[in-house]
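Hey,

Quick one before I head out. I ran the complex with adenosine-5'-diphosphate overnight. Inputs first:
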Amino acid sequence: MSEAPKGIVATNLVRAYSSGRRLCGKADAFRAVDGVSLTIAPGETLGIVGESGSGKSTLGRMIAGIETPTSGAVTFWDEHYAGVGTPQWRRQRRHVQVVFQNPAAVVDPRWSIHAQVREALTTHEQLAPSEADDRTQAMLAMVGLGTMGKRLPHQLSGGQLQRAVIARALVLNPRLVVCDEAVSALDVSVQAQIINMLLELREKLNLSLMFISHDLSVVRHISHRVGVMHAGKLLEIGDSTTLFDNPRHDYTRRLLAAIPADSPRQRRQRDMKAFGGRGAAAAQPEHPVQS
Ligand SMILES: Nc1ncnc2c1ncn2[C@@H]1O[C@H](COP(=O)(O)OP(=O)(O)O)[C@@H](O)[C@H]1O
Ligand SMILES: [Mg+2]
């Protein structure tokens, strides 16, 4: 008998929304995600790219277990997600975290960032106060905010605030983090710093990442494999280097052509600058487990 698959296995996911129109007397359902199957291995980063409206966020929410598929299934380390709101679902929540684009929208403006990271931790674990403080402080230090715990959200830059949100997600020791346009609102140099930080942390913490972005140049730096979404379908999925160097699908080629740098040489120079000397090759460690 073969071992049960670890990590995420999504099979034939569909998410339909009613379009409000009626065709032949039946409610016409629009498929935001239309039959997507994929896997994410432990420690693996899967990038998801595609234009706005292609279904990336809907797919990410189903993979994170915060939206129920219309049909199809997700297993998370060999478990199905429990129904939203049930005790089992709450237990599962700590293992999968989501980081969105706008950190200011998900923090409490009246609480210090130390208090918010600590609160996430103590909601899930019963700890002595000093231990909760120590673990919070250690996590803040890991995201480069070791001296800023006392600050309120408005006293941080956008990049620092996103680091605080990442600390709050990672303090629970999740297995999977879904990053949905998590760096898209930040300046390019800040994006690169946060990507580099994620590259370090995912090794330390053996994290699986689903990294969703409309920006291919960001995705290629962090992803072992990349999937291309278009109109709810996964058009192609493959090893990051292969996909970027040798796209099979016309649509992928067009997406790639829209990356601003116009020659491979210019792109490399820009990468070197933005990623502090770590080119794409250096930023992409060896692929872990192929599915
Ligand atoms: N809750 C919803 N109700 C109805 N339509 C939705 C809902 N969420 C997303 N959609 C539609 O599904 C499609 C895919 O959306 P989304 O997953 O947000 O794409 P992306 O993240 O790639 O921009 C879009 O056409 C969007 O309008
Ligand atoms: Mg989206």
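The pocket of adenosine-5'-diphosphate (ligand 1) is lined by residues 17, 32, 50, 52-58 (CB under 6 Å).

Talk tomorrow,
K.
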